[in-house]
Amino acid sequence: MPLGALREERSGNDRPPRTGSRSAIGRDLELKGARTETVVLASTAAALLIFGIPLLLFQKTLDENMAFGIPAGGFFMIIFHIFMFVFALAIGLIFWGR
Amino acid sequence: MPKDLSASLMIAAYLAVVVLFGWFTRKRAGKSEEDYLAAGRSIGALTGGFAFASTYSSASAFMGSLGAIAILGFSFAAWVNVFVIGMMVFMAHLIAPHLRRTGLLTIPDFYSHRYGNTFRVISAAITTIIMWVYLVAQVKAMGLIVSDVLGIDYGIGIWVALAFIIYVVLGGMYATILTSALQEVMMLATAFLVAGAIFLKMGWGGSVVAASAAAPYLFSVSGKPGTVFGWSFGLIVLLGSLAMPHLTMRVYSSADEGVARRTVALGAILTAALYAVMFAVPAAVIALGIKLVDPDLALMNLAGRLLPAPLIGFVAASILAAAMSTTDAQLMTAGSAIVHDIYSKAVRRGSAIPLERAVLLNRIVMLLLGLAAILVAMNPPGLIVLIMGLAMAIAAGSLLVPLLGGIWWKRANEPGGVAAALAGLATVLALHPMVLGGALGVRLPSPHLAGLYGVAASALLYILVSLATRPPSEDEVRLFEKMHGRA
Description:
Mean pLDDT of chain B: 84
Distance between the termini of chain B: 60 Å
Number of domains of chain B: 1
Radius of gyration of chain B: 22 Å
Low-confidence stretches of chain B: none
Number of helices of chain B: 21
Oligomer: heterodimer
Radius of gyration of chain A: 22 Å
CATH class of chain B: Mainly Alpha
Structural class of chain A: mainly alpha
CATH topology of chain B: Sodium/glucose cotransporter
Low-confidence stretches of chain A: 1-31
Number of strands of chain A: 2
Helix content of chain B: over 70%
Strand content of chain A: under 5%
Mean pLDDT of chain A: 67
Order of helices and strands of chain B: HHHHHHHHHHHHHHHHHHHHH
Number of strands of chain B: 0
Largest sheet of chain B: none
CATH architecture of chain B: Up-down Bundle
Strand content of chain B: under 5%
Shape of chain B: globular
CATH superfamily of chain B: Sodium/glucose cotransporter
Structural class of chain B: mainly alpha
Helix content of chain A: over 70%
Number of helices of chain A: 4
């Protein structure tokens, strides 16, 4: 099979149909799409809450205790910055093909 | 203040390159309105992702935010930065692919197909206002940088903004996206260059500990303005950015909906990388005891202390790039809202404008808008980050609910959309201290709460009015189904 035809066939298999009737395959793809969005949105919301709740609830404790020479709250905020980079990278890579 | 010839040459070289981008893309951009406003829908995920990240990271990333961190503390920026990454993940999955499926040209295009022509005019007018507020802040940033590096008067330096006006007018979205991708590369290079210089000088840990000892508010959870200011600003940036037309409009230039999703995902990764290292700058400024006359110039002051002259020029060019990568998109969005949505679709009621005249009209309007922004920015408004907060509040209050609801709630209709936009806008204008809030005697714990109250008012009226009035028309439902790949 010519390489071009193979590429075309693969690309046709990999991509969900953009339009068309609600066939069984279409419904299946739709469900998978919905699950993807649910996972992504739930994990992002969870990450934001993991950042926000400790800062709001334990503000005084975090400010009064030191970690590596700075207030623990500041240390937590810096660590979370780095975590969000890793998180964005992971989410981007996992769902890149969709 | 650095006024070295090599630094000036570096800025001149950058300006020449971006203007050349406009010159070389002018013919492709002039082929049709789709080419001019959506780059012929030909942009891939890699170029698009770099362009999206730089469009988001305005002058605020290198000027406003860093200066504000130095004087207010890190906590408010931490909320913003973390929420911004969340925003981009939300945009990649909740908005971008669905808007791209519509095959439309502008964001008011979406609103009019989903809610009717009245909403097109309302959203185009609001879009123009939002873009204007933001544009003036960015032009101010350009003037500050050039006057600082070249040692010239701010009123003269501000005319550097002509460069981005020229390349946008000539090359449209083609030039906007290509320059934005280049600008993101420059911004990332600067971020890692400065972070590396700080590391070599005192080590990251050393600068952070020394800064915390010199300014205890810097790394406390509440910072100077308090926790409410921090989380409310983070939340309004998240919500406002989702509705920012110059960001969402970018997805129309993607080759297809999958590319649109990947574009925003790559944008999130690049933005997160930039923010993960830039927090070191305000800490180093304080640790080195640099006195900030203008907080917005914190990065330039630090670069002047740590880097040789040519690299200071590169940093200055990168800050210009950060400002221009956002202003070009804003100019495109404001111009297209006036020409495509108000004049062509509403005033002429969609009767065809000859191809060449349509592109020419876009070019003239964008030129006038750009020049007017320079004239307004002659008298510098307040801190860049505060002006940006107002634009975010207006975007979130007026446009977010109709945008998300239009994509995800089938029952939403035109009366609900109109009521939501107007109620949200009125709430923000009435409560925000930079608009009517001060005159009306409104006292909020944080100015950004005005935007959050706007979102709440908008959502409430959206649901109530939509349910109380007729169901959406067949055309509106058809667009809804198309956005979800079912029509």
